[in-house]
Hints:
Number of helices: 10
Strand content: 5-15%
Shape: elongated
Structural class: alpha/beta
Helix content: 40-55%
Number of strands: 7
Largest sheet: 7 strands, parallel
Low-confidence stretches: 81-85
Mean pLDDT: 83
Order of helices and strands: EEHEHHHEEHHEHEHHH
Strand order of the largest sheet: 5-4-3-2-1-6-7
Amino acid sequence: MSRFERPSFDVGQHKRLKDKVFILGMAPTVAQVPPDADEYAELWLINEAYRLDAYYDRPTKATRWFQIHKRWDFTRRQNRASMSINVKDHWAWLRQEHDFPIYMQQAWDDIPNSVEFPLDAICEDLGVAGNPHLTYFRNSTAYLIAFAVWMGFKEIGIYGWELASETEMMYEKPSALFWLGIAAAYLGPENIDIPVGSKLAGWGQRRYAYDDVPAINRMHVESRMGDAKQKEYQALRELRRLPSDLNTRDAAMYASGQVRAYQDMIEELDDVMDPRGSFEEEEDE
Length: 285
């Protein structure tokens, strides 16, 4: 058996129905899922994704649903009473009868379609159980990718996932990419389907060092300098009002120093990116 060939796990009631699965989030790229995808792939949705029906102008189709959070989360008041009349009460929705299973941390008597998510079996069969470095689940995406690998899908599409907010970028995204790498190893990179424009795995990003782009680029520094100039303007206004106040003078000097520092940084970046030559070429001459 190849190192990355999927073993023949007994997945029991979780047996896959198709060879491909679309793991669907709620970011705009979910709209790129082909309209006929349910004919040849399983469709997995999460949390309150049914609320996007009107936004994407198509009805929700699902093979399986996932609500992995604690009970207090999916029963909380904010999920039961929305400011929008077009948003369904999530707790009421969970208690309705559906034609697909809803995977949760446990099966609940008052949620008729609830099924326990087989996390322990997934970790055991994929060989990560007991290893705190590899049982790396920080968001729903990671759980679902691991589940899809465990179930033996031959192709995985990941649509509607960006994880681009500050919290998601720092806390959640790394684990999703970790499991995406494992999925690519098992299935082959050619069988990982990510839509054009998705920022999940760094669409359009340049390669560190190879593409000769500094870690901090000019646009970022200009943005910071703009903020610094605004603070400098406010500090100088305050200094005109209180010219003898030492704290006000220090604040104005600090703000002006920040602006000059950013100006120097831009000049340095321009020099780094200057294509006209290098020290090595000067030595060769």
